[in-house]
Amino acid sequence: MAKFNLSWRWFAPVIVALTLALCPAPAGLQPHAWLYFSVFLGVIVGLILEPAPGAVVAMTGLAIIAIFSPWLLYSPEQLATPGFKYTSSSLSWMVSGFSNSVIWLIFAAFMFGTGYEKTGLGRRIALILVKKMGHKTLLLGYAIMFSELLLAPVTPSNSARGAGIIYPIVRNLPPLYNSQPNTPSARSIGSYIMWIGISANCVTSAIFLTAMAPNLLLIGLLKTSSHLSLSWGDWFLGMLPLSLLLIALVPWLSYVLYPPTIKAGEQVPKWASAELAAMGPLSLRETKMLGLMIIALLLWIFAGQYIDAALVGYSVVALMLLGKIITWDDIISNKAAWSVFFWLASLIALATGLNNVGFITWFGKLIAQGLQGFSTTVVMVLLVIVFYLLRYFFASATAYTSALAPMMIAAALMLPAIPLPTFSLMIGAAIGLGSIVTPYATGPSPIYYGSGYLPTNDYWRLGAIFGLIFLGLLIVTGLVWMPMVMG
Questions:
Q1: pLDDT tens digits for 265-287?
Q2: How many Å apart are CA 64 and CA 349, to the nearest integer?
Q3: Are the beta carbons of 231 and 177 closer than 8 angstroms?
Q4: What is the per-residue pLDDT for 1?
Q5: What sign does the CA torsion over 10, 13, 19, 25 have?
């Protein structure tokens, strides 16, 4: 049965691509562009079903298009151009994603996360907050939120942050109050803690550009489609009011809508104190790591006009190596970082090709024609709502962003009245915030869902409620604040 499931997952992307390729090209779209889109859609189906790691699926798609580039990547007119060599052009296109600065920024951010993990600084920060704020359940919720907040800028994998650093700490807290999973006692405090854990992960994923890999994928797609580039500081400033509202409201709303019966206690601070005592005093490596992270964040926020964010990240990684915070072996053995590096570079190249063959322009015109007669504000809000609600159909933030973000950008490009920087920020926020709606939407979701503290009915109900609240706040701040700061 397992073999059959795997075979089905392999065949489905191929069947989708071939079925689409055998259909005639729509009016206004050249045949080679339609064939290219067929392979692209097959890659997206592969990313959703995951018969192999995402990087393998994306690289396979690249290879297929490059090999058959005379029929997929170039029009007959281009091939007939004197001196045109499709072999060298195809190779240049295939590796173009690896030269994108976004790729190197996210790779550097992964190394920052390695430094946090190896030095123990991330765990220490979370334990200190829990110790200081854990005597009251509501404050404990804020401690979990602040822990995610402090780790998010330098942990571009929300799974590594949520499931690898925060969850191992918070899963130890409910049993201190005899709140056990899959029992009536789960609601006493454990359910509240676990819901805060996944909610905080989704919120912080939207706040910072480097908090989630799909955020950077969106920026890469935006740059290849429109040549518009949003910096780390642009993202942070654009999200600021939304961020402050969510940080302040989510722990309290969870406390009101999913109330724990245990309101206070000293068990958590005592446990955190014992864990910190076992860690010992702040080490020199932790101090170095903290100093470098502060420098990187300050440069990302205030020096974006003078120094590229990727260059900052690359330089800090070099200093981490020289300062022996991490080793070269840590870099070459970081499977998660290399995996993201390859699939992100491959997806950006695929999206670039989608734009080069003219599909993005054609699709944007199609959407624009369908939205004629509506005001710019209504169109922008409708597109954001559609993008947000489609999150229910994806179990991967990467597949979700890869499949839908190019189409949203294409629609905005064909409607010049839509402020593209503002619209892109709203789409970016929707990627992280929309991850709250289902127990399968993003990496940490199944971890918290499977903890035994969040029953299925509760998760779907709370996901819908918080998803609507997040969407409402996103639309309001997107219409009021983001246009003011993005110009």
A1: 888 899 999 999 999 999 999 99
A2: 13
A3: no
A4: 47
A5: negative
